[in-house]
Amino acid sequence: ETTLTQSPAFMSATPGDKVNISCKASQDIDDDMNWYQQKPGEAVIFIIQEATTLVPGIPPRFSGSGYGTDFTLTINNIESEDAAYYFCLQHDNFPLTFGQGTKVEIK
Amino acid sequence: QVQLVQSGTEVKKPGASVKVSCKASGYTFTSYAMHWVRQAPGQRLEWMGWINAGNGNTKYSQKFQDRVTITSDTSASTAYMELSSLRSEDTAVYYCAREVTRIVGASYGMDVWGQGTTVTVSS
After folding, report:
1. Any chain B CB within 8 A of the CB of A97?
2. Which residue among B45, B59, B115 sits closest to A98, beta carbon to beta carbon?
3. Is residue B10 pLDDT above 90, yes or no?
């Protein structure tokens, strides 16, 4: 089973900041990494697929990078509406596994 | 638009079973697999299993293998997840989520998620 270690667990940002969230896999998963956004009371939103591909309709301030075991979700010029819980998912092997999640607060 | 609507909140006693439904709309139900995922309070999300809505084939996480049954009703475009022998640790929000790809047997993760169903197990 692939363990995903996501960090930080919590971060506070100011509008306009650049934010990086890390997800490290316990084994090589190629680019089989997705990122999601979750806000309280709302459905989960799919934001990055295959490590680097922005899902259609997602603002371009979101980007993903990485391959193998180290992955990063970056939010450039963060906005107040980006306050949410973000999590990573690996789909390289079963069982699919998730990172612990990162809560992003906007000051 | 693609939408997954789940059944409502459940409260169950230890030892009971719960069955959560997930009604799909906006796409051809049998063309995509459906995943079930849960999140217990303060814990990370856990993948429970999935079903190929076209042929009914399932695959379960070893952790839940003995207690979970995922089924689908193609006439109703609805997937179901039943968890038996409930214990307090099963208190969680349960989600259905559509598989990204239509390639049978492969997973590219999930694209559309249901709103979640809260299941509370308490005596």
Report:
1. yes
2. B45
3. yes
Interval B43-97: pLDDT, tens: 999 999 999 998 999 999 999 999 999 999 999 999 999 999 999 999 999 999 9
Which residues on adjacent β-strands are paired with residue A7?
A: A22
CA distances to A28, A42, A87, B68, B94 from A39, in Å:
30, 5, 11, 28, 16
Share above pLDDT 90 across residues of chain B, in percent, rounded to a whole number: 94
**Beta carbons of A74 and A64 less than 8 angstroms apart:** yes
Could you tell me if A91 lies within 8 Å of chain B, comparing CB atoms?
Answer: yes
Q: How far is B42 from chain A (nearest CA, A)?
A: 9
Whole-number average pLDDT of chain B: 96
Of B38, B2, B23, the closest CA to residue B80 belongs to B23
Cα–Cα separations (whole angstroms), residue B114 to A12, A95, B86 = 28, 20, 22
**pLDDT range class, residue B106, cuts 50, 70, 90:** confident
Taking an 8 Å cut-off on Cβ atoms, the answer to whether B108 and A50 are in contact is: yes
- A15: distance to nearest CA of chain B, Å? 27
Name the CA radius of gyration of chain A, rounded: 13
